[in-house]
Design goal:
The chain has 139 residues and is mainly β. Helix content is 6%, strand content 47%. It contains two helices and nine strands, in the order ββααβββββββ. The strands form three sheets. Strands 3-4-9-8 form a four-stranded antiparallel beta sheet, with no helix packed on it. Strands 5-6-7 form a three-stranded antiparallel beta sheet, with no helix packed on it.
Length: 139
């Protein structure tokens, strides 16, 4: 192996496989879904992500939450030469089907200390007509 190993770990492995600075993507957006009488409450863990880097979109009955994260870490010696220079960028997203009856204004969202909380109201699904494709004729 060309890359040195320290305590059995590849020194550069974390840099190339963990796009959010040490958090694996499956650890980044862990989600708890709570079913209450009137709503569903989603709590998503997003450690190290800033509020301005989080987006939530409702389209065609799907709520999609996405996050981006990036940083640059430059170290120089006294003469301005680089000793180490690392740049890092990553993004991920998750989608949930919430139904076609929910509107954007009905969903409440808050972000605090790396945790996104969403409240999605429960809506009754519109019943399908039992007449199939036939038009009801009155009179």
């Amino acid at each position: 192996m060309l890359v040195p190993s320290i305590f059995g770990r590849d020194m550069f492995n974390d840099f190339f496989t963990e796009p959010f600075g040490g958090y694996r993507t499956h650890d980044l957006m862990k989600t708890d879904v709570k079913d209450t009488d009137r709503a569903y409450e989603l709590t998503m863990d997003m450690p190290g992500v800033k509020k301005e880097d989080v987006k939530a979109e409702l389209k065609d009955g799907y709520l999609t939450v996405s996050a981006e994260s990036g940083y640059s870490n430059d170290d120089k010696d006294s003469e301005g030469r680089y000793i180490r220079r690392e740049r890092h960028y990553g993004s991920c997203s998750r989608s949930f089907y919430v139904g076609d009856n929910v509107t954007r204004d009905e969903i409440k969202a808050s972000f605090e200390n790396g945790t996104l909380k969403l409240t999605i109201p429960k809506k009754e699904e519109k019943p399908l007509s039992d007449g199939g494709n036939y038009i009801r004729i009155e009179g």
